[in-house]
Structures are given as C-alpha cells and as structure tokens.
Amino acid sequence: MTRPAEDEEDRFQILATASLTLSGARVLKQGDTFAVFDRFGDIRPWGVLGAQGLYHDGARFLSALRLRLEGQPLPLLSSTVSRDNTVFVVDMMNPDLPPGGEPVIHHGTLHVAREKFLWQAACHERLRLTNYGPDPVDVDLEIAFAADFADVFEVRGTRRERRGALHSPELSDSSVVLAYTGLDGVERRTRLRFDPAPEVRAPDRVLYRLHLASRVTREVSLAVACEVGDERPADLPYGVALTQAIELLHEFSAQDCSVDSSSEQFDDWICRSLADLRMMITRTPAGLYPYAGVPWFSTPFGRDAIIAALAAMWVSPDLARGVLRFLAASQADRMDPAADAEPGKIVHEIRGGEMAALGEIPFKRYYGSVDATPLFVVLAAAYHEHTGDGATIAELWPQIERALMWIERYGDLDGDGFVEYGRRSEAGLLHQGWKDSHDAVFHADGSPAEGPIALCEVQGYVYAACQGGARLAELLGDEGRARILRARAERLRARFDEVFWCDELDGYALALDGGKRPCCVRTSNAGQCLFSGIALPERARRLADRLLADDMFSGWGIRTVSTRERRYNPMSYHNGSIWPHDNALIALGLSRYNLKDHVLRIMEALFDATRFAELSRLPELFCGFPRRDGAGPTNYPVACSPQAWAATTPLLLLQAALGMSVDGTEGRVRFVRSALPPALERVSIRNLRVGTGNIDLALHRHPEDVGIHILGRRGPVEIVAIK
C-alpha cells in the first residue's frame, strides 16, 4: 500500500503503522536504554517501521531477536514484567518435535524460562531449559538476531534520503559484533556475548546443541551491549548486573512515601504507577530526571518532567529537585531562532542520535514550548512549599528570575498582556502547548487558528508562576519584586476572565488567535484553568459541570475536545481522545474549588479503566469513544506505555480527593473536605515527608467524610483537617 503524501506540518508525527508491534508489547527502560519486546521475549523483524527493538541514545541497536527450538517457535505459557519493572519473565514450553509426524519430543516435555532486564546500556538475558520428561533429549536451541541501527525518528516514520554504512559482522567463540557508522561519523556497535560459547556461530544467529537428561536444567546467558563511539559497557555476569539494577531502584525509592489501601486493584494501580515512574527516571549530572515515555519519548522533555514532578511531589520531593536543577542547567542563554530559543526559556526536548546530531530533526536541544518556562517557576514554588528547602531555591534563584524575565520580555509577543507562541523556525513545532499536534488549535467552524496564539491554560500557568515567584522573592528578601509579581498576577486574572470567558461555552475559550479572535470551542484546556487557580471562584462550578457533561465526559474521563465540535475525532491524538494526566490535573483544580463530587467522578472513571489495562497500567492516552457496558476504553494505537505523566495520575487523583497539601515550612499537612470513592474504604500513607519530619497516616471513608488517624510521627508535623 502506498503511503499517503506527508503533510509538512505532520512530518515528525508518529505513523499509525508503528502500532503493529506495540499491541501486547513488553517494555523495559533503564537510563538511556529501552527495549520493546513481544510477549514471547522476541523482537519481531517488521522492518524500519516496527517499534520493537533494543534502543540506546536515540538509535535501535537490535531490530530482530528470535528464539527457536529445533527451528520451531515455542508455545507461550505466561508473560509478565515484575512489579518493580526490573525483570521481564516469560514461560514457554516445547511444541511437538519434530512437527507434523510422530513426535520424538512430545509437547510440554521441556520448559523454557526466559528472563531479561536492562542495565548500563546492555540487555541481559538468561534462558533456563528444563527436561520434565522421563528420558534424556537432544535439542537444538537457536538464537537469531539483527541490528539496523535505525534512528528512533525513522522508526516513528520520518523518512531519510541517505543513511550511513553497515559493517561486516565480527565473530569470535562467544561473541558477535554488529556495527554501523552513521553520517555523523559516529560508530555504533551491538556486541552480543553468549555464555557458554555456542557450538555454531553465524553473522545473524547462533546455535546450541543441548543434551538434557531427565529433570536436568541447562542455562544459557546472552548480553547485548550498546556501544557508541569509544563507550564500552562493563562486561558483567547476569547475577551481578541484576543485583546492581535492583539496588539502584531501591536507592531511587528509599526515601519515598508508600501507599496502600483496602482495594487490591487500587494497590496494583499505585504500585505499577510508582514502578513506572521510577523506571522512567534517569540519573543525570544534575540529579534524577524522569524521561517522558516509551518508546517515542524516552528522552528529557521539560513540560513532561515538570508535571510529573509536581504530581509526585508528595511521594518523592527529591525528584522535583533533580528536575529543577536539570532544567536550570539547560536553560537558554541566547537567541537561537532555529531552536526557538530566547534567554531564560526552559528547554522543551533534548535528543541524542544520528538525525539530531545532523540537524535532520530540530530537537537536539529544542525550546519550542510556551508553557515549560512558567511551569518551571510553578515547580520551584511548589518544591519549596513542600520541603522548606530554601537553600536549593537560593541556588536556583538566578534561573528562576531569568524564567520570569522570559515571561515578561519574550512571552508576550504583541504587548496585550497574554503570553503567546509563534515559532521562529519553519522546522519547529507549529503548536507549542501540551496539545502540540498540527491541528490542535482551531475555531468553532473547524478552521485552523493562525498565530501568534495565546492558550487559555498557559495564561493560568503564568498566573501561578507570578504568584509562586512572588512567594520565592519574599523568601529571599525581595519584597519589591514580590509586589510586582503579585500585581501582575491579579491584572492577568482579571483581564483573562474578561477576554477568555465565553458564556455560550460555559467556560473559557481554547485560545486567542493572532487577530485576537477567541477560539470558541469546548476543550479540556479550560479545565486546567482550575488547576492553576486563574479561574474566578464564581466561574468554577459552571465550568466543572460543563467538563462533566456527556459531550465532554465519556465515562472513562474528560475528552480533550467536545463531541459537539467540528474537529472532534475520538481516535485523534488531541481532538477527542482522553489523557489521564490531563484529567488528573483538572481533578486537582476541581479540588481547589471544593468540587469533590466532580473529582470523584473522574477518579472512579480512571480507576475503572485500570481494570481493563494490562499490568494495571494506564497509557499516555486512549480513544474518546463513549463508555460501553462490559468493555474497557479503546486503545490509542501508538500511545506511549509506560509514560511519566500517566504514571503519576493516581497520585494526583488521590491528592485531589483528599484535598491534601503539605506545607514543609510550617511542618503541616492540610486535608480540606476529604472524600474517597466507595471502592476505597481505607487508604494508608506512610513516610509522608513534611519539611524535616515525616508522618504515617490511615484515612477511613465514612458516609459523610473521611477520618484521619496518625499511625506514627517523626519530627515536628501537625495535621489540620477542614471538614
């Protein structure tokens, strides 16, 4: 089938054909390495557009991996990823061997256990073959492999006219090396090491001739190392590497808060979400940083990391410190139109790999997001409120000030008091809010909005940034700066309501276009004006009811766009789909205005969705079709799963339902009109850090409210409950 002509504004979007290998996929990530396998543990060779593979630093180092017994595939018994996301475990058995005639080895005689994990730029795999039959058997075990070294953007669907050169494979007794030199002059190598050495070696496969006595188990180990330039990962035995990988995860979570409840399903959701978040974390020189999502966005994104850190603040405040330091270190310090950069702007995306190095994509270090900069200030203020860590704020104050100055000097492109975006390079993103599809901003008649564009939720982020920046300025003794920022926030709030509120929508316009015409369409963007607090209190319930009306609320969550709008499409990326993180932010905003019935509807809908989700994992997004009895939400074909935003969804929802906020400067936890859905009779929170202390709590649902019991307290922490 001929591929349709590529829309110029769509050239970096992900092709739907990439979904063919994501259904039922198993995903691992560690550091700058991730892998997508099928349920059998294989990598199916679908060609350049198949998403499966072993990836490192923006390139695919393994594009095929196939396990066979006597040349035959193995029937699957089970396939799962451990609760902490460390190890992918597959159980299989032999088919009748040989097939088609009288078998010499009957099916189910041999058990094959396959375990694999990632550690330090390598995929480690252990195979265990056990003979449960009464007689000894001889069997050939074949492992086939290939490496195409495709850039991740090629896999997503971006076409290249030229590629680098593949080298002849290098074979030794126990290893095979596949290599490629890119057009960037960098050599990338896939080094496969086998233990024990196989009997037969070829450039694309190895063969073991195994003799298995009755009740005997044989082991074969495989390590696939990704090497870039002079890099050479350590050659570690399977057990040593696994121990180190588990120790790192424990290090990430040692200080974290833990949550359990009366609901096993909710506990599974929380457990998988926290494991996903920790898996997405990469250690950087600046600190811990959550990458955005696997497979397409396993790299630093500014907006994504900020929102993930905000959502996870009460569980892991250290993550916010790492995000702040990383983004401060990568803050723009000069004008660079090709990268959409101006002084003080926070980075949108950082990419490694051949295409980024060559400039074939603009995302090597790209600043084309309008919201990351105000959100950076919002995160800094939230981090200080939770932890009371004034030293880190003082360290980062120059970067916080530069971010605030960017808002004032560069954010408002036409002097109307609102922050807009308009790309400076044709190679950059057309739309630079969180809904960055080329068709995401439009008018009621469906026509695209022409820029510069002022998004409603971005004005809310700016409002919150000015309020938060004022608190931080006060902390550091600059009362004059604090007054200026508060005055700006109040002017913006009043002006925003005057210009953006649309009576006919019962909510806020999506945006103002370059001619200052409001985009009068019903979208979830307006809901995030509750999250930021820019919405006036008298508007809140009307907006909340609008968001939970049938045309917006599918039964699984709030759609990005109403079914009544011209561009509504439940299968689109941003024009009718449902994003869990978007719903969670809206829920937190509803809680701010004490609209707990609305919060619980969203919470229950997404909780119900986890019952249909493999591994209890909510994806990046799903389709916006109405809820049907007995069926789960419809999958979006190329959604990232796991994804950092989606992983933090239950944390935000629980915080919203409980009306929970932490004031580390005062050593206080506040619960405002706490509520829990019927499915949760009890929630326990342990090691909740509050400034220099921490506390353990049990919360019990009652017909009219929630009871709060202190199980343990270490340090000066008090509880304030407002009924």
Give a quick set of tags describing it.
single chain, 723 residues, alpha+beta, Beta-galactosidase, Chain A, domain 5, nine-stranded antiparallel beta sheet, four-stranded antiparallel beta sheet, 32 strands, 28% helix, 6-hairpin_glycosidase_sf, GDE_N_bis, 6hp_glycosidase-like_sf
Describe it.
Strand 24 (501-502) and strand 25 form a beta hairpin. It is globular and about 80 Å long. Helix 5 (317-329) packs antiparallel against helix 7 and helix 13 packs antiparallel against helix 14. It has 723 residues and is an alpha+beta fold. The chain has a domain at 8-247: Glycoside hydrolase, family 65, N-terminal domain (Beta-galactosidase, Chain A, domain 5, Distorted Sandwich). The model is unreliable at 1-8 (pLDDT under 50).
What's this model, at a glance?
Helix content is 28%, strand content 24%.
